[in-house]
Specification:
heterodimer, A: 91 residues, mainly alpha, Cyclin A, domain 1, 5 helices, 0% strand, globular, B: 83 residues, mainly beta, SH3 type barrels, five-stranded antiparallel sheet
Chain lengths: 91, 83
């Protein structure tokens, strides 16, 4: 799924930029903090993103993919309990 | 096998379960070493929590693909001697 280079397509490339929301900046900061604490590295981040079901991957934004991966990797390592984030957020 | 700038190489055409950084569109293709970037930790093992050692040499390889010449960074353990 992640390895989509050279897939033929006629779809136009969306080059629009948007102002980053606070949660997106925080997500970026969180990944850097996790890396400096030795809890998660960028290759794990990428692997977590690649583990997304293709339809979820397609629908998610750039930083939503990061959040998905952070939760996956930290749950795998036992830093987060399964479902802990959802429970804390009341979702 | 260590390569030098100008060497012809071929990217191994092998499946790999799990995280790796070798794009499918260059697997099985031949190219030319353009640059030796140096040695780096291996993302294939680092993605699963290891230190990624031993380091692997990373090369910039030029491929004449359709429709354009394409430059891709490829780790040494994916490269074979090419023609």
């Amino acid at each position: 799924m992640h390895d989509r280079g050279a897939w033929p397509t006629d779809a136009p490339i969306d080059r629009t930029e948007h102002e980053l929301a606070d949660w997106e900046l925080l997500t970026d900061a969180l990944v850097h903090s996790l890396a400096s604490e030795g809890l998660m590295n960028v290759d794990e981040l990428r692997r977590g993103i690649e583990s997304m079901p293709p339809e979820e991957y397609e629908q998610a934004s750039y930083y939503e993919r990061w959040v998905y991966s952070i939760e996956t990797i930290l749950t795998e390592k036992g830093v987060l309990a399964p479902g802990e984030l959802d429970a804390r957020m009341g979702t | 096998m260590t390569f030098r700038v100008g060497d012809r190489v071929r990217v191994a055409d092998r499946a790999h379960e799990g995280h790796h950084r070798t794009p499918a569109y260059v697997k099985g293709h031949s190219g030319r070493i353009e640059r030796v970037h140096g040695s780096f930790t291996n993302p294939e093992t680092r993605a699963y929590g290891s230190e990624g050692l031993p380091e692997q040499v990373l090369y910039q390889v030029a491929f004449d693909l359709d429709p354009a010449r394409t430059y891709v960074d490829v780790f040494e353990h994916w490269l074979e001697e090419g023609r």
